[in-house]
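Study this fold:
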Amino acid sequence: MIRENFHNTAWWGKPVAVVEDAAFFALEPAAQRAALRAYAWAEFKSPLASAPPFLQLAESGFTLVDMQIGFRLMLEAVPDSPSLADFVCQFADQKHFEVGLDEMRSFEHERFLQIPGASPEQLAQRYAGWSNQLVREHPAWCLRVLYQGKAQGWFLASLTNQGLYLALAMLSKTAQVSGLHLYQKALRAYSAKGARIGFASFSVRNTAVLNIYSQLGARFTPAEGIWLWHPGKAQI
């Protein structure tokens, strides 16, 4: 019903939980408090269509902090453009690379910034760690886009039974390429490598990504809500 999220714990430095069963919110308030007491904060994720009433979640101290839109994309249908000709995709299994903290742009659409005490620097460390973990574990599907030998950004993915999970895409601080062209170049490289379907999700705050994937022909799936509990905000 509720368990520790070890990835978030390792990042935050204190135990963090995830509520996995909406039945948690039917427990008595005292039982909810007891289950949450050991954690610095907790998340609950659910498709909006099947989530408990929002006011019930609020009564349990869980605040809606984000909505994620999922999508699926036929990679072979991503159009080519003459503007892509001068960009080069380099996969990590061809030449190893790492994503440096000093190379990344700031993350402006992240729910973790809603956590009391969270800083942009902590968030950057989280994403640098995740980026380089993906590069180590899935080098055949992690790439960087180069222009005149300089990294413009990264597209980091992993192959699953459902298709290619497009985990993370980022422009570098010094990028001279647009987000659209970064996505086009990378997605076409994935298609050339044999991947057929790409999928992922992103925050509804990130309208730039929504516009890019809309332009590239993505089909969107029902939204998922993400609620945050923090002891400073709990009302139970």
Remarks:
- The helical segments are 6-12, 29-36, 54-59, 120-137, 179-192, 207-215.
- The chain has two domains: 2-67+224-229, 71-219.
